[in-house]
Amino acid sequence: MTQGAQQDRCKVALVLGSGGARGYAHIGVIEAMEARGFEIISISGCSMGAVVGGIYAAGKLSEYRDWVCSLDYLDVLRLVDVTWSPMGAMRANKVMEKLDALIHDIQLEDLSIPLTTVATDMIRQREVWFQHGPLLRAIRASIAVPGVITPVTLGDQVLVDGGLLNPLPIMPVLAAHKADIVMAVNATAHSPQPVSLEEMLPAAEVSVEQEVAGESGETVGRWMRDVRRATQRLWHGLGSLADDKDADATSDAEARGKREWGKLDMILQSFDITQAALAKYKIAGYPPDILVEVPKTVCSAYEFHRASELIRLGRHLADEALERHLGVEARRTLPGAETPGSADDYYNDNDDTVS
């Protein structure tokens, strides 16, 4: 049997982890798998993994990809709907309105690919798995980063980002007994040394980026000036929510806005560190057949204007991981080699909450 024939029949249970903007790499991973003929038969996702997994299962990934790749820094700022709620700094209403326009009122049980999204119940301090009900609600609960995006209240549950307890939800797909392999994408991977997105991309693609920017750097310069102006407007917007009646009050409000934004940055970076450690434990406890790791240093969790680069990075890392897997499988099929295990070998009972 040829490798191509094997790939055409290979059924994959896919795990998409949290990671903020780095979760755009999930799109590239899916593209790489489809290009090789793999069939995704089950998905579990957390946070951005829930977003990408849900949209893919709903058949709207190409439209979502086109949208996020069109966003520049200023567009991302326009999507930020600030609130002074003590439960979170942002509501995420504008983003959810866009997702609603894509997937409407589709139910999880009606998706063509079984999907589990993971959130965290702050009251009971345990995971909540969404496998039934509105897809939009399941996504919104899974992306509610504590202190950053307001939580979702569902009955007596207060639901926040599933990454708080399980940034790489491998367990839900291990029940997909028809899967040939389990593939996980960890978008909060720890790296011994900080590595940038440019360093991770193949040299040819980096040179293309530089060419697009222009040898003189004028495009980059304009972009940076736009960033500074936009950020100044953002600080002014944050300050104007207070009762700033004179110039001194405005200055104080702007300074307070900057401090609050610094706090958000600190929350997100702290969340990244915690998720990276938790993901390592999940991988050790339930090792996937194929693991794609996106270092958490390639970009900040909120750099949502870098979708094109991150998608390319996901595709590149997935190609490398799939090549390694195919090489290992080829060696295992040699006479005398052990027969590779299946996802069933990893399946164990668990006490996670299922909703």
Distance between the termini: 42 Å
Overall pLDDT = 81
Q: Biggest β-sheet, characterized? A: 9 strands, mixed
Helix content range: 40-55%
Residue share in β-strands:
15-25%
Number of continuous helical runs: 13
- Overall 3D geometry? globular
Q: Mind telling me the C-alpha Rg?
A: 21 Å
Order of helices and strands: HEHEHHHEHEEHEEEHEHHHHEHE
Parts with pLDDT < 50 across at least 5 consecutive residues: 1-7, 207-221, 234-247, 256-260, 339-351
Q: Tell how many strands the DSSP assignment holds.
A: 11
Structural class: alpha/beta
Note down, in words, how this protein is organized.
This protein is of the alpha/beta class and 355 residues long. It has 13 helices and eleven strands. It has helices spanning 3-9, 25-35, 48-57, 61-69, 73-78, 93-103, 135-142, 171-174, 197-200, 203-213, 218-240, 247-285, 307-332, and strands at 11-16, 39-46, 88-90, 115-121, 126-130, 147-149, 152-154, 157-161, 181-189, 290-295, 353-354. The strands form two sheets. Strands 1, 2, 4, 5, 7, 8, 9, 10 and 11 form a nine-stranded mixed β-sheet that branches. It has a two-stranded parallel ribbon with strand order 3-6. β7 (152-154) and β8 form a beta hairpin. α2 crosses α13, α3 (48-57) packs antiparallel against α7 (135-142) and α11 (218-240) packs across α12 (247-285). It is globular. The two termini are 42 Å apart.
